[in-house]
Structures are given as structure tokens and as C-alpha cells.
Amino acid sequence: MTSTVDSDNAITTTTDDALIALRKVEEDCGFSKASIYRMMARGEFPKPAKRAGRSVRWLKSEVQQWVRNEWRPQAPA
């Protein structure tokens, strides 16, 4: 999410819907490609946006939301 201040000093907030590649998704959430695809198959991770050809991209805002709300590190046993 991006906040900007315009000439009237009003704060405008916009959602960052940039498309990001798998490498960035792996970096942002800390999981491998295989883990991400397993979680997607179980409905536990956002699916990529539809793109032409073989290119796969995720909405940055969806990945960020998943990281904030869904991912919980396991406590050591």
C-alpha cells in the first residue's frame, strides 16, 4: 500500500497491485517454489494472476496480505 500527500495536504492511499515474479514471491514469503505450489494446490496461498504465454506473476498486494495475515512461523518443539 502506498500513501501520498497531494497539493492540498490530503493523504491518498492506493493499493500496490504490481505484478511480481516467483523469485520475488519466494523472497517475500520465505518458501521455495515447490512449497508455494503445494500451498496453492491446497488453497492456502494466493494463485498467480493470469498472463499470456508461460509467464506467471502474482499480485504483490495479495502476497503481502498473505504474509501479514496467514503465515505463522512454527514454534520450536
Keywords for this entry:
77 residues; alpha+beta; two-stranded antiparallel ribbon; two-stranded antiparallel sheet; 4 strands; 35% helix; globular
- Order of strands in the sheet with most strands: 1-2
Cα(first) to Cα(last) distance is 36 Å
| Silhouette | globular
SS-derived structural category: alpha+beta
Strand content: 15-25%
Mean pLDDT: 81
Order of helices and strands: EEEHHEH
Number of helices: 3
Radius of gyration: 15 Å
Total beta strands: 4
Poorly predicted regions are: none
Residue share in helix? 25-40%
Largest sheet: 2 strands, antiparallel
In words, what does this structure look like?
The chain has 77 residues and is of the alpha+beta class. The protein contains 3 helices and 4 strands. A hairpin with a 5-residue loop joins strand 1 (2-5) and strand 2 (11-14). The radius of gyration is 15 Å and the shape is globular. The model has no long low-confidence stretch (mean pLDDT 81).
Summed up:
The protein has 77 residues and is an alpha+beta fold. The chain is 35% helix and 16% strand.
Task: Please give the structural blueprint.
Layout: E1 2-5, E2 11-14, E3 19-20, H1 22-29, H2 33-41, E4 58-59, H3 60-69
Antiparallel strand pairs: 1-2, 3-4
